[in-house]
Amino acid sequence: MQRSILRIDINNELDVVLAYKRAMQLSERLGMQQANQTKFATAVSEICRNVIEYVGNGTIQYSLTEVAGYQYLEALVTDRGRGIGNLEFILSRSEYGHNVRGTGIINSKKLTDLFEIESDFERGTRVRLSKRLPQTGPVISRGTLENWVQEFEQDTDISPYAEIKSQNMQLLEVLEQLRLRNLEAEQQLQEIRRLNTQLQQYNQDINQLLEEREQRNKLLQEVNQSLDSFAHTVSHDLRAPLQNINGIATALEACLEAGQLEEANRVFPMLRQQTQKMDRLITGILAYSLAGHHNLPKKALDLQVLLYQVISSLNVPAQFRIEVQEDLPVLYTQEVYLYQVFSNLISNAIKYHDQPEQATVQVTYTAEKEWLYFAVEDNGPGIAAEAQQEIFNMYETGQSFATPDSSGLGLSIVRKIVEEKGGKVWVESQGRGSRFTFTWPKTELIQES
């Protein structure tokens, strides 16, 4: 459906100004927003100016049309010129420089909602410009349109200066609205960037927490496996002396019932030996379970004094010679840790020596950049290469001969304590002799003033 409103002949620049003005008036009365009014009128002005520049004269017809259920204000600009020979090329280009032919057509197309153009050689050109009307606009009757036409006919005073000034003011207003919208869009972009940055930081924090949780889960699994193994081994090793004690107690009971006191006296030392073995095993288990507790208090610890206390507490054979380096440092650390470490290393050197009459044990120390290195070296039977890693596990001694006073926990206690302090412990042995070395954080060294 199409309803014609008015027709204007385009013969000079004043007619172009009039066409622009009528486009503004009609779009305003039909309820368009000001920005759309300016777009439609500018598109009309561009095409009309092309008619004046390239043909000389033409006409413009304003109408109301309906397309797909929507109302449009339409301007049909026609001329009887020679046509546009390169129309397809013009329409295929998306960008034009200033003062290039075809710019007006492309700009008008961008400013309207519907755009159609036809051009035939020697038969002229027809350009249809349509701008969609708002659905909330006024209802227009034929009488209303006739009244508008009468008003326009009486409005014959057209000042190009006033119209251009009005156009410029309207364009400035539209530009100001665009500037405000650009500012608002820029603020929204900045907020989006800030939120993206914050989201990335949150993602990094979450990933870090997930990695920490994964590490802790792995550590917990290792601890659980260690506890399972520890509980299994402890239950097995505790059961053995208990069974022995039960057997000896039964034998003692039989000897006493039979009145065999001499036999009972021979059995009593065996009972004492089993109880002592069980006591050492329980003591070792307690020491292992306490190793690595960070809440133990620290104190200034003179290692020269500590080594004297450790050696004094051990059952050292008379033939044994224990040499301690004289310039051992003073540390601010947990006393029980180093007491356990040196006690286990030195007692093992004594316990497993096969030639006590020629035995020598040396305790030495060196300071490096970040760590203190302590070593306990003996001239005993040595440790086979294939056993040098296993001896730090629970109940592994690495010795082929039995040692009744060994709990099998000493070196595992040493490793656990040293690793809790961030250090390492290892053994070096080739043929006879063994050298146990462990590192201790230099940050706990008390510097001499």
Tally of contiguous helical segments: 10
Order of helices and strands: EHHEEHHEEHHHEHEEHEEHEE
Structural class estimated from helices and strands:
alpha+beta
The number of E-state strands comes to: 12
Shape: rod-shaped
**β-sheet strand percentage:** 15-25%
Number of domains: 3
CATH class of the largest domain: Alpha Beta
* Largest sheet: spatial strand order: 1-2-3-5-4
Query: What characterizes the major β-sheet?
Result: 5 strands, antiparallel
Say what the CATH topology of the largest domain is: Heat Shock Protein 90
Helix content: 40-55%
Superfamily at the CATH H level of the largest domain? Histidine kinase-like ATPase, C-terminal domain
What is the arithmetic mean of pLDDT?
84
Ranges with pLDDT <50 over ≥5 residues? 398-406
From the alpha carbons, calculate the radius of gyration and give it in angstroms: 51 Å
In whole angstroms, how far apart are the ends? 105 Å
CATH architecture of the largest domain: 2-Layer Sandwich
Enzyme class: transferase
GO molecular function: phosphorelay sensor kinase activity
Protein name: histidine kinase
EC number: 2.7.13.3
